[in-house]
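Worked problem 6 (solution included).
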Amino acid sequence: MKTPIYKQISMKNSLVNTVLIPTAKANLIIVSAAQGFLMCGYLNIDVAEKLGDAACIVSGVSTVEQLLAKPVVKLTKQAEQLGICLGDTGQQALEKML
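Solution. The predicted structure is:
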């Protein structure tokens, strides 16, 4: 098993945490901000909704850079309340979660 990769990214004078966990078939990716998180399609948006988290899914990605560049395809009601919309890039969504 490969080692997870942890990074902090500076965005709008804030730091966000990124985690990329290589698995046998794909990478599991999460980027966490003060008010919510972005995640790859590997993770379950319904659980995030049930727990009341502001969360967005960006699918078809294998790197953090792709997660930030591609559009949001699913989101929770709590993410909508932060002004995030389907089609926003991961970066745009993340900036609304700071």
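Discussion: The CA atoms of residues 18 and 31 lie 4 Å apart.
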